[in-house]
Amino acid sequence: xxxxxxxxxxxxxxxxxxxxxxxxxxxxxxxxxxxxxxxxxxxxxxxxxxxxxxxxxxxxxxxxxxxxxxxxxxxxxxxxxxxxxxxxxxxxxxxxxxxxxxxxxxxxxxxxxxxxxxxxxxxxxxxxxxxxxxxxxxxxxxxxxxxxxxxxxxxxxxxxxxxxxxxxxxxxxxxxxxxxxxxxxxxxxxxxxxxxxxxxxxxxxxxxxxxxxxxxxxxxxxxxxxxxxxxxxxxxxxxxxxxxxxxxxxxxxxxxxxxxxxxxxxxxxxxxxxxxxxxxxxxxxxxxxxxxx
Length: 293
Ligand SMILES: Nc1nc2c(ncn2[C@@H]2O[C@H](COP(=O)(O)OP(=O)(O)OP(=O)(O)O)[C@@H](O)[C@H]2O)c(=O)[nH]1
Ligand SMILES: [Mg+2]
Known about the structure:
Helices cover about 45% and strands about 15% of the residues. The protein is built from 12 helices and 10 strands. The longest helix is centred in the middle third of the chain and has 18 residues, at about 180-200. The protein binds guanosine-5'-triphosphate and magnesium ion. Guanosine-5'-triphosphate binds near residues 98, 242 and 271.
């Protein structure tokens, strides 16, 4: 687990080591500021972290740890196990990593012994349906799909109905990240949510927003927009392996007041890990400070 987040943050850590070649016992505030900004921690949060540290110029590990921890207070809602099937709707801009993340989530559930079904509600592109079908095939998981340009809400409805009939534990529904325009996308997402609730009252139980970690802080604005359209329950950050902007998670956690449920650290089905703020913070701190004896 700890090794996994280390892999995901390897570029962020390499970047820290570039600014601070050797670990220190205490770090001066100016260097700390530089490290945080370079890691894409938002400017206001960097200023705030510095403000909440003790007044001395040299910062101790335990003080920095305490301040950093205060940014990750939003806990994942425990999944209501009594709700079966548990329906998850995956949303996000095009290319964020939705479809790949769905495969990873499904794989995680399958490994837990759960029965999963996928719904290919990104009917905007034929390739999107194909991509999810290939994953379903590879993982040996059932999928409901239609032809390109068919109503995505109908696919969602059919997937949930099928899940109920087949006693599935989990339903994961893919959506399009891009339509002809923003209003279309917004209306379509709202409709999918309404139709899910028609198929099974209370569904979708979790709306997961997928954000591309390489986009750093600009992901925050996307998140705000999606939150306004349909409301977001949890966030998954992808491509953490490909970026030195690992610090952006501070901004996301803080601005949205939403839990980060998982982070993705690669393209294979096993590259999705539950987000552990403690391991995340420790990985950053270990790059800065000399390990305690
Ligand atoms: N390195 C890396 N690549 C990833 C990760 N997650 C997704 N990708 C890659 O990012 C690209 C886009 O991922 P998709 O899952 O197709 O993204 P999407 O949001 O479904 O995109 P649209 O369907 O176009 O909206 C693919 O090439 C993925 O393999 C990750 O955690 N790490
Ligand atoms: Mg997709």
